[in-house]
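Appendix B, example 12.
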Amino acid sequence: MGSKREISELNKLLGWMRRQPTKVKMFTGITIVIVLLASLNMFVEDHNHFFVASEAIHAAGILVLIHKLNTKRNCSGLSLKTQELTATFTAVRLGCSFFMEGDIHTVLDTLTLGFTAWVIYMMRFKLKSTYMAELDSFPLAYVLVPCAVLSVFVHPYTSHYLFSRILWAFWVYLESISVLPQLLMMQKIQVLEPFTTHYVFALGVAQFMGSAHWMISVYDTAGKYLYMLGSGYIWLPMVLLTEIVQTFILADFCYYYIKSVWNGRLLVSLPRPRV
């Protein structure tokens, strides 16, 4: 928490930013991202560490949810559908990792899947009476079907079996939009309690770390990295696009989260959606 003077100065800055045109806001956001990426590129030599950090932060975020469910005995504000999508893409990714790599990512995915399965169990059975099902109404078919169809047509060119490559693409696409039901639910609630917001912010940080790997790799190779798995093939450009999409999906929430934490507020308030 900052001092009163720091909070006042930050509020002035945020107020000024809110009054700026959309183009200025986008330019400022892009500038901040570039500075962060440049810093990571300068201090982290092995870019694969970004993936490990992303998966570890995601698992830590779910541990925050487990703490909430254990102590508060309440799952209000939490999207069961996002948890189910998370379990789905993590299970698929774990299968791909087990047969294709079998490394630290396999360990982290196993932990994440176990944690997520426990959260789903608590929400479906132990704490079912506190689950806001009427606000968690996003149809899962709107996410699963497009991801499945796209993965059939756009997947990596590797020496693995075709089915494994399709599954690989499926979890990448599904992960990029799995948080959507949670964000839509939070827009309906608007005033959010701390544990859920900590979890979603952890997802935002994890996503940024994952995106950093792709963006820095593309920069370091002057764009050649995009075509490593087949000359002119669109798989890696599509992966980069999904990473950017998920980052921007979470960016708006992360802005309001940081603003609330800086001002010393436990609850995060989101603006009303425009009609």
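The chain has a mean pLDDT of 78. The radius of gyration is 19 Å.
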